[in-house]
Each structure stands twice: as structure tokens, then as C-alpha cells.
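R.M. (postdoc): so does anyone remember the format we settled on? I'll just put the C-alpha cells first.
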């Protein structure tokens, strides 16, 4: 099963070539695609050359790109072994995911995980997680396609998620950022507020705008939003969409109903990553209506590939009094 990598003998090392051997010739044909179009797509994305030699593929190019291409080919071959077909979107997704896992070869962003250094690099500033919980959270956002950040206000849940999203966008790992919130406070009164829909919902989305303004120059942010590469929209606007090749954040998720949460989670498309943030102590839903965040914790807690990170008052990075306020309320409500 699988393929094997063959290390070239010393006499051919200068050729900068990696040989991959595939035991099933039928699957190898499917891996290459009609007229080798799958190989051509990988070559274009990773700037390598891939040559067929019997049941072997030779990958030629920069050593780090050879490594990435070999990992992509391995992942796609495994997909074929599982009886699944390969389409263009599957190749894009494999390249993106392998690039994220092994990204230190082409993007030094993930160098922060080496030697215990954690730093998120955006256009305007570098952000360093300040607590162990924040470090674990940031790492999980890179390592998992779906992650939850749950805890009190001021712990950096949304801020760090948006920072990671901006980093992946400017690094070319995703095509767009989509930020969403339930506009619970608006309720049925939304239609009676003055202005168009954007003017009506913007007050509820302001914290997301604030985070973006911290990470991107104003002109670049305006251009990205004009091009719809960064979108900010109420949760209700997500229905019916498939969010592919995107970094998606649902903020204030404790105010999503169970049906809204399921709807949102099932929007996850190929090549996307999704972050859900919320504070269980600040539910604004009508009395008796269960929070979709609490249900998601209960239902998805054991699902592999989904990370849950929890914060406490010890992780508050706002004014020191905020942590004391949270503790005081917890004592009363506990």
C-alpha cells in the first residue's frame, strides 16, 4: 500500500530529484490524470517538474518544493486507494493543507512553533500570544480545519483568530476571509433601523472591523473588502453558501441557535478553515432557547480533527480589573 520515496545515489544528488515509487499502476494512471493534467496542476502550483518513469514519478525542483510535491502526491494516492476520485479541487486542497503542515519550507510563518516561539505576523504588526492557553489556541488554529475558542471576554479569542486568518490570506493559503456574528440584539427591530442593510448590521460587526484594522493597512483592507476577499456578514447571511478556500470565523457563537450552528458548520468547504468563538456566560438568546455553542461542545467534543480550546480569567489581556470582574461574577453565579 502507498508509495515509497527513493533517495538518489550520490552521483545523481546534484540533479535535485526525488523518485517516488507507486505499486499500483492503475492508480498511478488515475493519479497522473488524463494527459497528465493532474501532474501539470501540481507542477504549476509548486514550481516543480514531475516526470513519469514506469511506476515511478521523478520530482525535480528546489528541495523544499520537492518535499511538498511528494507529500501532495502521497495524499492524493491515498485518496485513490480509498476509492475516491481526484478532481481539480482535491488537488488545490491537498496543496493548501500540505503547505500549512509543512509550510516552514515555503513560508516562515510556522517557524514560530520551533523552539517554543509563538508569533503571528500580519502586515501592520506582529502578535505574540501571552498565555499558555493562547499559545495552544493559535497552534490548534494552524493544525486543525475546525477549532473552537471558548471563554470570557478579553481573552483574545476573536482577535487571535482574525490575526491567523489575515496571515493565511496574505500568505496565499486561503482566498478569502469571512467573519460572521449573530445579530441577536437587532431581533425583529432590524427592519425598522435607518439605512441600508450594511448600515443596520455594522454596529454589531464593529469588533471584527477593529481587529482587521489592527492587522492591515487601511487602503489594503478597503481594497480586499471591495473585492469581497474579506467579508463581514451576519450569521443569517451564511445560509445556502458553501465556503471554499476561505478562513471563516463565527464570533459570539453562544448567541447562535442549535439550527444556526449546524447550518454554519456545514458551510465548511474544500480548502477552508473555520473558527468558532464564544462566551457561555453571555448568552443573549430568549429564555429557554438552547445555545448552539453549548450543543456543539456536547455533540462534537469527540470528533477527530476538531479542536476545543478553553480560556479563563487568567487569560484576560485587557485591563487587570477585567479579570477580577469576571472572577467576582463567577463566584456569584457559581
Amino acid at each position: 500500500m502507498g508509495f515509497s520515496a527513493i533517495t538518489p545515489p550520490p552521483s545523481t544528488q546534484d540533479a535535485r530529484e526525488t523518485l517516488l515509487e507507486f505499486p499500483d499502476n492503475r492508480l498511478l494512471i488515475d493519479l497522473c490524470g488524463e494527459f497528465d493534467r493532474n501532474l501539470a496542476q501540481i507542477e504549476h502550483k509548486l514550481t516543480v517538474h514531475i516526470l513519469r518513469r514506469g511506476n515511478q514519478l521523478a520530482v525535480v525542483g528546489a528541495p523544499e518544493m520537492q518535499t511538498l510535491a511528494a507529500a501532495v502526491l502521497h495524499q492524493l494516492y491515498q485518496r485513490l486507494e480509498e476509492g475516491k476520485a481526484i478532481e481539480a479541487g482535491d488537488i488545490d486542497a491537498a496543496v493548501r493543507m500540505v503547505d500549512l503542515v509543512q509550510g516552514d519550507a515555503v513560508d516562515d510563518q510556522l517557524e514560530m512553533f520551533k523552539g517554543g516561539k509563538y508569533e503571528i505576523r500580519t502586515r501592520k504588526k506582529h502578535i505574540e500570544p501571552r498565555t499558555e492557553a493562547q499559545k495552544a489556541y493559535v497552534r490548534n488554529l494552524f493544525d486543525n480545519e475546525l477549532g473552537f475558542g471558548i471563554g470570557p471576554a478579553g481573552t483574545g479569542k476573536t482577535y487571535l483568530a482574525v490575526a491567523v486568518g489575515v496571515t493565511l490570506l496574505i500568505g496565499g493559503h486561503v482566498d478569502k476571509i469571512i467573519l460572521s456574528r449573530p445579530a441577536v440584539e437587532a431581533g425583529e427591530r432590524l427592519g425598522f433601523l435607518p439605512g441600508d442593510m450594511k448600515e443596520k448590521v455594522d454596529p454589531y460587526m464593529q469588533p471584527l472591523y477593529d481587529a482587521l484594522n489592527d492587522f492591515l493597512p487601511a487602503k489594503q483592507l478597503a481594497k480586499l473588502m471591495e473585492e469581497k476577499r474579506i467579508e463581514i456578514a451576519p450569521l443569517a447571511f451564511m445560509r445556502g453558501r458553501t465556503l471554499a478556500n476561505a478562513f471563516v470565523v463565527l464570533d459570539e457563537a453562544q448567541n447562535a441557535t442549535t439550527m444556526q450552528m449546524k447550518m454554519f458548520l456545514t458551510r465548511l468547504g474544500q480548502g477552508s478553515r473555520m473558527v468558532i468563538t464564544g462566551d457561555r456566560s453571555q448568552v443573549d438568546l430568549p429564555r429557554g432557547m438552547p445555545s448552539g455553542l453549548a450543543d456543539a461542545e456536547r455533540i462534537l467534543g469527540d470528533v477527530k480533527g476538531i479542536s476545543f480550546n478553553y480560556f479563563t480569567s487568567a487569560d484576560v489581556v485587557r485591563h487587570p480589573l477585567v479579570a477580577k470582574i469576571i472572577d467576582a461574577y463567577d463566584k456569584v453565579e457559581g
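R.M.: ...and that's the designed sequence above, right after the C-alpha cells. Also worth knowing: Residues 6-15, 102-110 have pLDDT under 50 and may be disordered. The chain is about 40% helix and 15% strand.
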